[in-house]
Structures are given as structure tokens and as C-alpha cells.
Amino acid sequence: MTVPGRRSSTFIRLLRLGFTDASAAERLLGLPEMTPVLGDPVLLDALGGTADPDLALRSLVRVVEAHRDEDARRRFLDTLVTAKPLRDRLLGVLGSSEALGDHLARHPDDWQALLTYESADLHPGVAEFERGLAEAVDPVSLRVAYRRCLLAIAARDVCGTTGVAEAAAELADLATATLRAALALARAAAPEDAAACRLAVIAMGKCGGHELNYVSDVDVIFVAEPLGGTEEAKALQAATRLASHLMRICSETTVEGAIWPVDANLRPEGRNGPLVRTLSSHLAYYQRWAKTWEFQALLKARPVAGDLSLGEDYIEAVGPLVWQAAERENFVADVQSMRRRVVDNIPVAEIDRELKLGPGGLRDVEFAVQLLQLVHGRSDATLRSGTTLDALRALAAGGYVGRVDAAQLDEAYRFLRALEHRIQLHRLRRTHLVPEGEEDLRRLGRSLGLRTEPVTALNREWRRHAAVVRRLHEKLFYRPLLDAVAQLAPGETRLSAKAAGQRLEALGYADPAAALRHLEALSSGVSRKAAIQRTLLPVLLGWFADSADPDAGLLGFRKVSDALGKTPWYLRLLRDEGAAAENLARVLSAGRLAPDLLLRAPEAVAILGDPEGLGPRGRDHLEQEVLAAVGRAGTAEAAVAAARGVRRRELFRTAAADLIGSYGTEDTPAEADPGALVDRVGSAITDLTAATLAGALRAAVSDPWGDTLPTRFAVIGVGRFGGGELGYGSDADVLFVHEPREGVDEQEAARAASTVVAEMRRLLQLPTADPPLLIDADLRPEGKSGPLVRTLASYGAYYRRWSLVWESQALLRARPMAGDAELGRRFMDLVDPLRYPVEGLGEDAVREIRRLKARMESERLPRGADPTLHTKLGRGGLSDVEWTVQLLQMRHGWAEPGLRTTRTREALAAAQAAGLIATEDAAVLDEAWVLATRVRNAVMLVRGRAGDTFPSDSREVAAVGRYLGYGPGHAGDMLDDYRRTTRRARAVVEELFYGA
């Protein structure tokens, strides 16, 4: 007797056995139907051993209640408590699968499917499953028989009689038997169609690969041929009706639910193509039109139903094409595209729970194995398996994958597939999401044998295995390449030079022989340096392969490593600073400019490992550093060499930050706002140029005159320099102004100023390892015919008497950059009335500006240049946008203070805010200006020299595309988008600038 207020011993025992609702369990055990097993300790222990004891007991009670016949119920319960194998199997299923519990409640006698223990029952094949489905006479009875067979598979799976690979193979065999039964039903329903054609069903995907899930689409392809003299067209129509009926039999929902959807979308042309084709039609499509992913899918093709002889003919015909796929012209681009995980369509909230497509998921393993099969299976038939784990084992045996890596990946894949199976088994629903609920996670953990703190243990194991997959996904491709060249472990099977070359070529390396030489030079030997390189290179090679020019990335890395290999901090930086290695890989493989800058002073690589290292340094900081370096130098040449060294380092910092921001990294997405990238680059290079000019001015003055020049001297930036919009290849457009100091003769002052200008230009263009800084003073009064430097008074006199409207327009972007700040401010006071005339421009001046612009368009565009792709002078390019904005500034700047800026984008925003331009039009112009500027920057980054139009070389165009955010194979889309954007901008220019 239980004392009131105290728990019974059964209640306490139930809690200890893992029941979460012991009170409900106690009530269920006390039901009259459960009297024969009430208190049976063996049954309670068995329930406690299941994944979810509460679910197992609830489902067991439903099955007992479903036995209406008293004798049948007693026989069932007696067998349950006396036969341990049945007890373990049945309760294991009931504790893992609510859906199969529902099935047993509807068909209580199906428990007997778990009663026999012959060897064929432990490891059934297609023939055994066909016998299990033999009595099905319609779609409903087929579903019941299918669930009965599925019940037995699940029982063996959850009890550990079969492993995850064996369970997946059994599920594929059951699917094969089901397709055959469904086709038999379809043929029986339409015997005339059956007599008119030979129809073969080819399994694809996981069914074809003998590795099916509990709930998955079954991917198929249908092949047909005429039979008995039937015309081909009529035979195909008959085969299409049979195939369609087969799909409906399996896919449609009945009172017993559905089996699974049959998906034929992997057929030629997908859902837009005919459901059934002849063998010759299939072959013609694959020979002419098929894409790389379609050959990848054919890796798993396997005839399973219908005319198996025709199915074998199909496999024999398409097989050679599969193994030639790696030789196709677009294979590399396709592979680069496919290697980017398709996660864009996964909701952000689900990405961390995605078992299949998420980072470190099943797709990573399957794709890696399939890619290696395509590359090496053409010359090694042992790799031609449709089953992931069998193929992985063969890859390891052949030396294509490291044995330790293969073993770790095998273990991780088995765990992830087992977790996927348990998730789907619960309700027999197609899902790859790990649930969030504590109860679900607890059931999953216990079902995988994690009985101590199952939720914590499950999350720990899942994350551990996903991390293994993430880590090995890339190394799987590249580590054997290093083993092939490093020759460290005699006797181990390793890649041949030919196989290593094939793999590099498949991953985008244009010169695999040179790449292997670089790998050998970097990783051979037993030194600590070589050991660290062997750790780094597998990951670096993958990042290089993500770029448009992997060869350049690897060559650059070898050069940097050769230069810095003996410095203790270099390899330690790459190994220990997570971002440094990836940042370096992105920078080295994105084009010529950044690597050239880095190789002139390789120690700048340290910038890439500093979390704050890629941020722009302000003008004051730069000028202070440059002037300090100039002050320490012994000669003017040494002083400017030091200043140019700072400039080179900072150009590298700016380019690296730009490239990394444009490409993104594994942890940080690409910058979403291209305008922000353009502004950062423009400001950084402008500040750097101003600091360099300040240093050159100090050097030019110090040697002859010491600290004080006989005349005050200022450098005024104009053009892109004054606008803070310099690009990597921009000259510095300037005006030089001076004013004699008190008591100094004007001619002496003029000679001093001219000497300084000449010396600055000479020093900044001296041939050294650092890039020169070209000074362009052609926007000065009288242009090239006028003196290089004038007094402030001379400027005033010229502008009052002779100034033309284009000169006033040029002064819109004038800004003091170096030298005497007070003189620079007075120069601004002088020119403000010219660039922002009171009451704006007159009509004659407006007409003159329009005439000049039209003349420039017709005369200055280079011969042969495509006007739709020229970033500066082309349709809707920089000139169009800037002249339109500058006309607004000159007409309205006197009344709108916001327009009094040297920056194009700021002026455009101010014009929009003042209502001078519609919001939509302003956005169109801004987008075009930003895009054209980014293209110019990209061309300089990629080619290492300036250009105003897209490159003609396909690799360089691809690299420009990558910088702009386009994936491999999308250069055409980039050019189309550029033309579309600039065409819209030109339409706005026609209206606003020309008044059309």
C-alpha cells in the first residue's frame, strides 16, 4: 500500500528508467489491457532502454488496444515478454518512430514481421522485399506492405543489427522492389501499353547510389524502346503513360498515406523535357547539351525496374561520357560554381540546423567524393562506385585521399547519416533540420546511444563531426597533392604525378606542372618550415582555386614564402592568426597589383593578420609618418624614397582591404554596399597621395633652403585628387600656387617655386622598386602653355580677365592638399566666386559646357573602343555623371550650400535633397558612377596597369567579375549588367544635362 503523499515504487522506478512523465506512464501500465504484463520487470527495463520510453509505452498501449481479439492480444503480450529479440526490435521502433507506431495501431498483426530471425531476415535483399510486396494488388495494399517491410528495416537499424550504411542499402533495395511492384500494377492496368514498349527505370541519386534515406524523393530516369513493331512515337506515348502511372502509384496520398515522391527531374532538360526518351535520344542529349552537374548525377545511375537489359544498355552507353566529363572545356568553371555551397535559399534561422546543406554537412562529403571520382575515375575504374562510402574507401586505397582523412570523414559521414535517419524516422517526414526542442533532442541523443546527458552529448558530437567535415572538405582535394611531391613516407600509396596534375587542372590550375613544382619547393623536406607549409597549403590551395587565377595565387605565395621563409614570425602568423592565411590567399590570387606591391616589401604581410591592420589610416597620421621619415633621411632622394615606401605599403593596405571586402571571407560576407567600398578606396588613396606630396615638398625645400622657402607655397588638388576620388591608377591633378615672403624679390620667389615644382616631379618619378606618383598640372591656367606655378595674384588676374567656363568647372574640385595652409585657404576664397557664380550660370555658359561635352564625346573616345563599355567617356560612364552633377553645382551652388563639395556622390545627394533631381534619377546616376569607378579599380587591381575598359583576356575578365561579385562563368552577366546600368544613367543625363 502506498502512503498518501508518497510516490509508489513503480513511479520512482519509471523515473530511473528514463520516463519523463512517470505519472502518465503509471496510468497507462494500470490499464486493464496491460494487466497481463503489469509490473513485469523485463518489459519495464526494455521500455527504459528505448530512445523515448514515454513514446514507446504510449504506442505499445495503442497496439495492444488495437488487438480486438482477446486471444490475439494475449499471444502478442506473451511473445513480447518471453522473446527478447522481438521485444528489443518492437520497443526500439516504438520508442523511435511515432509514425511506425501509428502504422502498427492500424495494422496490429504486422508485429509478426519482426518475429522471424533467419539470416535472410537479418540482411534481406531485393528478392526478399519483392516477396514482401508480392500480395499488393493496388496502391493502398502496396503502401501497407511497404510499411511492413520498412518496419523490419527500422527494427534492425535502431537495435544495431545493421549499421547506417547497411540500413541505407536496405532502404534502396526496398525502393527498388517498390518501383518494380508499382510498374507491375501500372502494366496490369494497361496491358496494351505494356505490349507496345520496353521501359527501363534508372534509379538516380541516393536510391541509385544504394544509400537511401527513410524519407526521400526517389530520383529516376525513364528509358524506352518500341516493342513488337510498334512505331516509336506510339511506343513513347505508351511508355510515358506507364511511367506516369508508376509515379502516381508511389506518390499519391491514399488512406494509408504516400510512399515517397518519384522525381524524374534529373532527366535531360529537366521538367521541361519529355518524361520518357529512347536510348539514342538520351545519348544525343548527353553528347551535345548536358552540363557538368548532369554527369555528376549519372555517377549514381543504376537500372532497377522494368526492362533491365535496356537499363544496362543505357548505363553502358552513358558511362564513358561520365568519365570524360573532367575533360570538358567548361569543367573547371562548373566545378568552381558547384563547389560554392548552395545555401542562399536556406533561411538564416535554419542554416545552423541544416544537416545536409549547411557547413560541414552531408553535401560537403558527397560533393568532395564525387568530384574526385570525376577527376580520377577516368583512368581508374576502381573508383566508379555510386555509393559514397564505398567510393571514399576506394579513393583512400588508391592514394587519392589520405587514409587518416578518409577514416575521419567516413566516421563523420556515418554519424551525420545516422542522425538524419533518426530525425526522419520519428514522423517519417522528409527533413534535414536538426530539431530545437529539448524532448526531440533527448530522443535523438538516446537513439544514437548517448544516454548520459543526451542533449549535451548530441550537440557536442554533431558539432565535432561537422567541424571534421568542414576541416577536411578542402584538405581532401589538396593534401594528397602534397604527399605526392613531399615524398615523406616511403611505401605509402600516393598520387602519381599524372593524377596530381589532373586534379590541379580540374580545380582551375592552368599550369599543373608548374603548380606541382611550387608545391614541391614549398613542402619537401623534414624542416619545421616545410611541416608548417604542409599544414597550411591544403587550405590555401582551396582558397586559390576559388579565385579567377589560382596559378598566380600559388606563384605569389611561393615568392612571398621564399622572401620571408627564414623570418620566424611569417609562418607562425599564417598558422596562428585565423584570418591572415585566408586574407593572403585572397590578395595573392585576385590580380597583379596587390601581389606586386607586397613582393616589393613582403614584410607588409603582417598587415593581414592584424584585426585593425586593414583599416584606413587618416591623413594626419600618414603625413606625420611621412614627414618623420623625410626628416631622418640624409638626401632628398633618400627622403622621397622613404615617402614612396610608405605610399607603397599603404597602397597595399588599401588594395588588400578592398579585395577582402569585395570577396568576403569564410567568416565575413562581402561588403554589401559597393559605394562604401569606392568611398573608402578613394579617401584612402587621396589621403595617401596628399601625405606623399607633403613629404616630397619637404624634401625638395629642405636641401637648398632648409626649413623656409623664400616664398609661401601650396599644392591645390583638382580633378579626382581634389574630389577625394582617386583610384589605384590615378595621376595627381594639381595646381601650384606661391606668394613671395616679405622682402623677397618676385623673380627670386618665382625661381624658388619653379625649382621646387621641378624637383618634386623629379623625385616622385625616380626609377625605384616603388610605384611612381605622376603629377599632372595640365588643368592650370593656359594649360600646357602656361607656367607650372603662379603667384596667387597672377591666378586672380588670369581668372578675372581670361578664365573660360571649363576652367571654372575644373575648379569645382579644387582643394588644398599640401604646403602653406593659409595660402591654400586664400586660394579657395579666390576661386569660390568662379565655381559658384552668384545667380548661377548664364544660358551662354550652359550652352558652352554642353558643346564642350558633346565635342569630347565625339573626339576623345579612343578609336575602336566600345562606347557602351568605356568607363570614363562611354555612355552613362564617369564623365556623363560628373558633368551632369557639376552643371548642377555651377547653376545652384551659390544658393545651396550642400552643393559646395568636391565629391561627386556628396554633391549628387545634396542635389537630390534640394529637390534639383528626382530621387530615382539620383539613384540611377549614383549606381552608374559607383559601378564605373569599381570597374576602373578592378582593372588596375587585376592587370597591374590602369585601363578605362574591360580587359580582353578571359581570365582577367573573370577576375574583374569576381571582384564585382559575379561567380565563375558569369562574365557575360557582368557586361550585360554594366550596359544596362549605364544605359539607364545616360537616359537621365540626356534629360538633365542636355535638356532632352
Describe this structure in words.
- The chain is mainly alpha-helical and about 1000 residues long.
- Helix content is about 60%, strand content about 5%.
- The chain contains 44 helices and 10 strands.
- Strands 1, 2, 3, 4 and 5 form a 5-stranded mixed sheet that branches.
- Helix 22 (about 440-445) packs across helix 23, helix 23 (about 455-485) crosses helix 26 (about 530-545) and helix 26 (about 530-545) packs antiparallel against helix 27 (about 550-565).
- The N and C termini lie far apart (about 100 Å).
- The model has no long low-confidence stretch (mean pLDDT about 90).
Instruction: Classify the beta-strand content into a percent band.
Output: 5-15%
Class by helix and strand content? mainly alpha
Low-confidence stretches: none
Largest sheet: 5 strands, mixed
Quote the average pLDDT.
91
Helix share, percent: 55-70%
Helical segment count: 44
List the helices and strands and how they pair.
Layout: H1 9-16, H2 22-29, H3 41-48, H4 53-66, H5 70-82, H6 84-96, H7 98-106, H8 119-122, H9 126-133, H10 139-158, H11 164-189, H12 191-196, E1 197-203, H13 205-208, E2 218-226, H14 232-251, E3 262-263, E4 276-277, H15 279-288, H16 292-298, E5 302-306, H17 308-323, H18 331-339, H19 362-376, H20 388-397, H21 403-427, H22 438-447, H23 454-486, H24 497-506, H25 512-523, H26 528-545, H27 550-564, H28 568-576, H29 578-588, H30 593-600, H31 619-632, H32 636-663, H33 674-705, E6 711-717, H34 719-722, E7 732-740, H35 746-764, E8 775-776, E9 789-791, H36 792-801, H37 805-810, E10 815-819, H38 821-835, H39 843-859, H40 878-892, H41 904-913, H42 919-943, H43 954-963, H44 971-992
Parallel strand pairs: 2-3, 2-4, 7-8, 7-9
Antiparallel strand pairs: 1-2, 1-5, 6-7, 6-10
Helix pairs in contact: 1-2, 2-4, 4-6, 4-7, 5-6, 6-10, 9-11, 10-11, 11-14, 15-17, 19-20, 19-23, 20-21, 21-23, 22-23, 23-24, 23-25, 23-26, 24-25, 25-27, 26-27, 26-28, 26-29, 27-29, 28-29, 29-32, 30-32, 31-32, 31-33, 32-33, 33-35, 40-41, 41-42, 42-43, 42-44
